[in-house]
Amino acid sequence: MPVNEEHLRRAIALAAEARAGGNPPFGSLLVGPDGTVLAEERNSSLTDRDITAHPELKLARWAARELSPEVAAGTTMYTSCEPCGMCAGALARSGLGHVVFALSAEQLDGLRTGGGFPAVPTEGPALHSEASAPLIGYYP
After folding, report:
1. Is 13 helix (H, G, I), strand (E, B) or coil?
2. pTM here?
């Protein structure tokens, strides 16, 4: 699938708009199977006071709510930066067809002078039989 540089440039412009609005500089747009731009989003995590207000996540939620699975599968998301883990999880569940990004996560890390977010300590698994009981038979 050829990369549409015009759509990538629009994602970068949306990132610049997010930054100008006081938010982290990330932007994304969703393009339908026929090449029509279906929706655009900018990061609004600071102004919305919502750590999940990433443009990729907002578009994934919109697509899952507004598009049929068949249409969603034919879409392409163009985004200014490779989706973070949170957004990648939402994209996997949304049924979108393809993602094209301008800047990789590794390249982004190279631009950060203070490093990334600190890891949150986790532990587990625990209570396997109790935790698995509600899940048994749920997945085909």
Report:
1. helix
2. 0.87
Q: Give the pLDDT confidence of 50-106 residue by residue, as tens digits.
A: 999 999 999 999 999 999 999 999 999 999 999 999 999 999 999 999 999 999 888
Which residue numbers are catalytic? 56
Secondary structure, 3-state, 65-126: HHCCHHHHHCCEEEEEECCCHHHHHHHHHHCCCEEEEEECHHHHHHHCCCCCCCCCCCCCCC
Extract the tokens encoding 13.
């412009």
What are the tens digits of pLDDT across the range 90-138? 999 999 999 999 998 888 888 877 767 788 888 999 999 999 999 999 9
Q: Dihedral sign, CA of 34, 58, 41, 62?
A: positive
Torsion angle (degrees, nearest 10) of CA 47, 51, 52, 56: 70
CA dist., res. 28 & res. 64, Å (int): 16
Q: Are 10 and 19 in contact (CB under 8 A)?
A: no
